From TrEMBL:
Keywords: Signal. Residues 58-112 form the PepSY domain. It holds the Pfam family PepSY. The lineage of its organism: Bacteria, Pseudomonadati, Pseudomonadota, Gammaproteobacteria, OMG group. InterPro entries: PepSY. Residues 35-56 are annotated as: Disordered. It comes from OM182 bacterium BACL3 MAG-120507-bin80. It comes from the Bacteria. Residues 1-19 form the signal peptide. This is PepSY domain-containing protein.
């Protein structure tokens, strides 16, 4: 097997393994805090909603699905960048050994290609 083919197989194994690992902490919040935000019935009077929860319409999975609807390739990494109305998901993808970056606007879903 070629070196590039071996790297692709290793990347797929790593991403598959990462998908199986439960989310322990996101943005400094515990999984329990996130669950409380998602289920209003668990929210006590003293627990305010997350500051940007109502402003984000797309989840990471939805952002990846939008990106894959227009660009094919393997997702290497995804992160939320920007502030306020300019929050967007930065998605690093790879296709045939070439790595590229896409941005998916967190509210509108508009896709732009990075440099």
């Amino acid at each position: 097997m070629s070196k590039v083919g071996l790297i692709k197989v290793q990347m797929k194994v790593v991403f598959f393994a990462l998908a199986l690992v439960p989310m322990i902490e996101v943005s400094g919040q515990s999984a329990q805090d996130i669950q409380t935000q998602l289920e209003p019935s668990r929210r006590g009077a003293s627990v305010p909603p997350a500051p940007n929860a109502s402003k984000l319409e797309l989840t990471e999975r939805q952002a990846v699905a939008r990106a894959r609807s227009e660009y094919s390739g393997n997702v290497l990494r995804i992160s939320l960048v920007g502030n306020g109305a300019n929050r967007r998901y930065q998605i690093r993808m790879e296709k045939e050994g070439k790595v590229f970056t896409l941005f998916v606007h967190a509210r509108t879903g508009k896709i732009t290609r990075g440099g």
